[in-house]
Amino acid sequence: MRSDPIFVEHQGHRTLLKWHRGRRKASDPEFTPTRILEAMQLGASVEVDLVVHGDHGFAILHDLELDHGTTGSGLVAETSAGTLRQLYLRGNDGAPLSDRVMLLEDLCDLLNANPAHPEALLQLDYKEDLSRLSPGVIEKFAEAVSPVATNMILSGGDSAAVAALAAVTPGLRAGYDPTYVGVLDDLRTAEDFSRFIAAALKKAPDAAMIYLDYELVLAADAAGMDLIGAVHADKRRVDAWTIRTIDSTTLAQVRRLLQLRVDQITTDDPEGLAEALAEGKS
C-alpha cells in the first residue's frame, strides 16, 4: 500500500514534504479545502498564501489580482469579504472549480471543526508587507488564528510584519524568507553567502524556520558555503522552496538537498516526489 507523501528519510534525517498551496500532486488545483484538510489530518506540512482584502482581513490567495486564480477580476485589496466568498477558484487549466475562495477565518473555522493531527503544520505565507497591516487587520488575524495557532507557522519576506502578527497570536510560530528577486546576482562567493545568511538570522531572531529558494541553497553549496548547516548551527530549521516538476534534474537537486540535511522541501507534487525518490532506492 502506498504511503502518504509526508516525509522522506535520508541517512537518519527526516525531511518533510510540504504541500505547496495545498497540493498533494501536480494535477491538484490550489487552495482547495478538501486537500488542505486532508494534509492537516494526515499530519503533513502544507502551505497557503495570505493577501489582505478590502474589508481588512485576509484571503487565501497567492496573487494580488483576482483574474488568474479566481472567477473575479481586479485587486484583492479592493474587493470585499462578501464578494470574495462568492468567487470560485480556477483549476490548473483555468476552468472554474466548485470550490469558492476562502478567507482566513473560513479556513481556521474548518480546522477548528476538524482538528488537525498533532504533527500537522499549516504555513500561512503572508505575501505583502507591514504597510498593509493596520490595527484592524492585525486584530482580525489574531481572532481567526488563535484557536488553531498551535498547528500553524506564519512566514513572509517582511520580518517586521511577521513579528507584528505573531506577537498578538499566542502559540503561533514564526518563519522568515530572506530570499529576494535577483539575490543570486548579488551573491557569488562563500563569503557573500555567509554574510547573507548571518544577516537573515539576525534580522529575524524569533523565526523558527528559514525559507530559502532551493537554487540559492545549491548555489551556496557550489560556492563552498553550507547555508543549511549555518541555520542549524543557530538552532533553526530550513525549508527549501519550490520543486515544481519532478524530472532527472530536480531529482538530483533534491538528493543533494537531502544530503545537506534540509528539514523541509516545498513542492507542487509531494506524491510524485516521494514516489520518484522511493523508486530511486530500489
Automatic annotation (TrEMBL):
One of its GO terms (biological process) is lipid metabolic process. GO terms for molecular function: phosphoric diester hydrolase activity. It comes from the Bacteria. InterPro entries: GP_PDE_dom, PLC-like_Pdiesterase_TIM-brl. SUPFAM superfamilies: PLC-like phosphodiesterases. It holds the Pfam family GDPD. Residues 20-271 form the GP-PDE domain. PANTHER family: GLYCEROPHOSPHODIESTER PHOSPHODIESTERASE, CYTOPLASMIC, GLYCEROPHOSPHORYL DIESTER PHOSPHODIESTERASE. This is Glycerophosphoryl diester phosphodiesterase. It comes from Rhizobium rosettiformans.
